[in-house]
Amino acid sequence: MTKTQIWSAAFLGIFVILFFLQKFAGTEYGSAPSMGAGMPQQNQANDSMASTEATGDVLVKQFNCNSCHGSDLKGTNMSPALVGLKTYYDRDKLINYLRNPNAYLEEERFKAYKDKFKNIVMPAYGNKDVKELGKIADYLLGLN
Ligand code: HEC
To answer: Rounded to whole angstroms, how far apart are CA atoms 17 and 23?
Structure first.
């Protein structure tokens, strides 16, 4: 091998190693989003971390609530409007609802929803960070 070839091979090797190191680090952060203890500066690692810093309205967009509830959250033919929720919820109840909507299906309002929005199911967000759901709850409770 010539000197140039040796140098090229060495550089290539370094890039490959860096690539895999980065990939490895990325998946490790991604698999444990709430175990932030030892690594406080991981926000840029992936978008689930970035969203920890996001406000409620941004989170609503990130979680794609708009795809069913409408771009202005005023409801669509697939799902109800998310305005005036403070008549029915306080913050904790709304967080609980988002984590487990099925627990509320016995309420009269939800029976009516079932008729109106046949075949569409409000997803459970029990796998999301409760802090993020709290921000979403705060945001929704402020909508009139
Ligand atoms: C796949 C469509 C869909 C998506 C996505 C969705 N929803 Fe829903 N949502 C519904 C439907 C349908 C209902 C009506 C209740 C039912 O049928 O279970 C509902 C009901 C609700 C209610 C109860 C409203 C009331 O009057 O009590 C809240 C609050 C709510 N959704 C918030 C959200 C938030 C916040 C998100 C995003 C994190 C979201 N939804 C994403 C379909 C959806």
So the answer is: 10
Pocket test for ligand 1, best of 60, 69, 143 (most atoms within 8 A of CB): 69
pLDDT for 124: 98
What does the pLDDT look like over 61-77, one tens digit per residue? 999 999 999 999 999 99
Residues 36 and 99 occupy one common structural domain: no
CATH of the domain at 136: 1.10.760.10
Q: Is the pLDDT of residue 113 over 70?
A: yes
Distance CA 144, CA 136 (A): 15
Domain boundaries, position 39: 1-53
Q: Indicate the top mutation candidate among 122, 133, 141, 143 to test ligand 1's pocket, ranked by most ligand atoms within 8 A of CB.
A: 122
How many angstroms separate the alpha carbon of residue 50 from the centre of ligand 1?
Answer: 24
> Do 74 and 90 fall into the same domain?
yes
DSSP-assigned letter for residue 40: T
- Cα(43) to ligand 1 centroid in Å equals 28
Statement: residue 1 has pLDDT above 80 = no
